[in-house]
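pasting input
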Amino acid sequence: MCAKKVDAVVIGAGWAGSILAKELTEAGLSVVMLERGDERATAVEGDYPTSIDELRGAIRHRLFQNMSKSTVTIRNTLDQEALPYRRLAAFLPGEGVGGAGLHWSGVHFRVAPDDLALRTNVVARYGKSFIPEGMNLQDYGVTYEELEPFFDKAEKVFGTSGEPYTINGKVVGKGNRFAPDRSDAFPLPAMGDVYSASLFRTAAASVGYHPYALPAANASAQYTNPYGAQMGPCNFCGYCSGYDCYMYSKASPNVNILPALRQDSKFTLITKAHVLKVNLDADRKKATGVTYLDLRTQKQVELDADLVIISAFQFHNVHLMLLSGIGQPYDPKQNTGTVGRNFVYQTITTSRAWLSPKQYTNLFVGAGGAGVAIDDFNSMNFDHGPLGFVGGSPVWVNQAGVKPIAAAVGGPGGKAPTWGEGYKDAMVDTYRHSLTIDAHGSNMAYRDVYLDLDPTYTNAYGQPLLRMTFNWKENDIRMNQYVVGKIEPVIKAMGATRYSLGMLKDGEVFDTRRYQTTHLGGGAVMGTDPKTSCVNRYLQSWDISNVFVIGASAFPQGMGYNPTGMVAALAYWAAYHIRTTYLKNPGPMVQA
Amino acid sequence: MTYGLFSRAAFFSAAVLLTGFVSDLHAEDTNTLVKQGQYVAEASDCSACHTVSGRGNFAGGMEFKLPIGSIYSSNITPDATHGIGAYSEAEFSRAVREGVRRDGASLYPAMPFPSYARMSDADIHALYVYFMKGVQPVDQPAPSNRIAWPLSIRLPMTIWRAVFSPSIRAAQKDVMRSLPNDGIGRGAYLVEGPGHCGACHSPRGLAMQEKSLSNSSGSLFLSGGAPIDGFVPTSLRQDQRTGLAGWSEDDIVQFLATGRNRRGEAFGGMTDAIFHGTQHLTDADLHAMAQYLLSLQPHNPALSAWRYDPEAASALQAGDVSAPGAKVYVDHCAACHRSDGRGYAPAFPPLAGNPVLMSDDPASLVHVVQSGAVLPGMTRAPSAFAMPAYGNMLSSQQIADVVTFIRKAWGNNAPPVTAATVDELKKTAPETMRKQGIIPLN
């Protein structure tokens, strides 16, 4: 092993890593970014038309993590034995340059400001006793006003399409009236409504809700971002989620940041580099760099660095902290430690409405980030007092393009036969004349839902797998049921010929076999108290001050919004404070 | 536009303006000279031929396939054995401007010495200092030329040189000719001299000599050249439809700086010329080149201006794909280039009114369709774009149909292309990006 030295090492080449690498090279640092997967180029992965081969793409998981090398184990409760998640289904972590930021859909939200201080807000409005027993409700330790410039920056980098509601306090458009105030417009106008979304818009308004265009990192026009990176316009082909966009119109680290970053001589990207651990000095106060496995040579390489940025996918961040001994592992029995604590997910259920045979929704068209949503039942936008639960859900028609195999595997729904002529007729009816409405909601943190190292299973490199202990809880099930109930009047107002409401059932157990979302969060949460958070408000490790942990791992709760916008804003926020404060005087930016 | 009436006030000496440090020759600072020489090397696009990926900068090795065999660009690093380290400045100047090697042998005119003959002494001096002091020596010979005896005898090259290459004196005299203003003068120097644009964009005679080396000898200069690697260099003059008529000064500047603008994108050898060369030039020099190009009278003034015709777009937008090639166009092209042919420039170039596809020779368009194209990221436009290759997917008839459709639609009105022509062009199809191993990473 031969140790090389750089100013900063960035682990993971997704959004968080690419943003940090860009910012740190701008600050003059030499940066090595390590990615365990392959290079990903639109010219190859997005080669038209081979890129839109569904079997090769989403079905055979072309851009996703190779589960034969490393995965997680999962159990629902503390008394169970966790088993390895061997087949991708419930959630789809990415692999390769761009990470999950290459195969995401592109829904690009900011944050509901109330969610940033959810504990404080719930206690202030409903009292401390409103919080259910065993729920670890807590605040982020950062305000929307502090993050706003970084949301703005991220949108400009991503080329986000959307319609504002207010800019600097003035109502300027028909955007989301629950959205927080903005300092500037979206860089691109909102994506157009597909037919199903336009029906939802009209119907939702007619029953008194407040529909708005989803903010989408799918470019509604050709765009050049502040880094000079160019995007083409989206053509609603529907190959967003699970694919590399052949039109260069879905924002990705590959399209929006790396073209500029790769030109910087201070930046080095090393692929096929699987980081095994962050190395610490003898008294375990400072990180000295990382050790990674060069997957081409199978040799371990030590890379010394003054600054270590852990910016892989959410649970990989937690895994690496546990493997490296950064912070104290969470113990749910003693309620001590923080690493792995507040592991959260999101609730998502889908309802379907069938329309008349004359109304063509053509589910195969769409754009991953586009659609029409309502926020009337998200965050603290409605009165939880009589309802007795915490959290909420945006509700939307997000027609992202249902590909043929996925449609067939999903089946026609309703009471249709599962094979034969009846199945086929129903399939056509569903594929061409139905639409789906999602309740995409929050998931709170609980004392017995967490991440730790598995005692039994190891990955291909001999390291213990990460163990997930996760189950749905009554608070979130009731929240979902309540919000889905609010969808029914919209469906009726649409004039649906029939419909089915999808919701979590009482006592429902988390099922890994069905895709839900890849929006995993927490486990290395940010906050103001080192007893309940792993990283401070600047995403700096409380324990090892030259380690920053960037990503959805910092979310103390699973929020109703999709996470990528918040991840990007937190990445720019952390980078800003590293550049303006930390680098001038390395050390803890908040005294524990 | 006429530049027939040259004003005496605008008369100037290009050589003095170009070098800009004539008064300070005695205080010459090597670092400054190296920088100046690097700039001259970029303006002269030395890298495009002398740098091959994986061999080291300026280590040579680029293959030029000729009917009589293959020749390879030479190692021009300061390595004494395999490069030009042993060259004196006079020998260097002789090689660059007159095509004579240190040992007295004549260079093949793949080296554009007839154009470089126009380069000023000061630029040659800076270039020499750069190659000697600013370039890393590479201790590796370029591959040997593979031309069988007796054709390998260089004597004919010496005769060629005597007949077709101007003497330095004659070339410099032409550089000093009167031009309307400083900008056009500087542009003429760059385009006709170091930039050697005519090497591709001017027609060549039977002996492969450029028929015209300067606009001073008439409108053949830069009126379009023979296919290179399958692609047809367009006219850079103010020719309607097939030339730069309608391009603004800013269009040309943006194209040379980034390889893309609202009217089109570079492909083929032009991407190298921009990547290694023009993108490194100052805005002032790019504007000068543009001003000069805009001053070139059309070679073929009979051509009428392109006018957009909405008929094809109306048909496609109404779902009418009955025209031959229309369906292939909708399935394979329209997502980026749109049914109205206007594209989404500068990401995806317009096909409507694009001079590349209205020339009589359809080779460029056919080759882009069958082999795809790559626009690499540039310093000022870091994004790369790749057009997929359809050669393995579409039959010759389908390619002929879609190319015919594109050449006819939107007012392009260029002649149709047959499947037989496509079959013939398959033989000269450029290698796809993947085969060449030049995959842009974004």
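fyi Chain A touches chain B at residues 39, 41-44, 47-49, 97, 221-222, 227-233, 235, 237, 246-248, 254-255, 258-260, 262-263 (CB under 8 Å).
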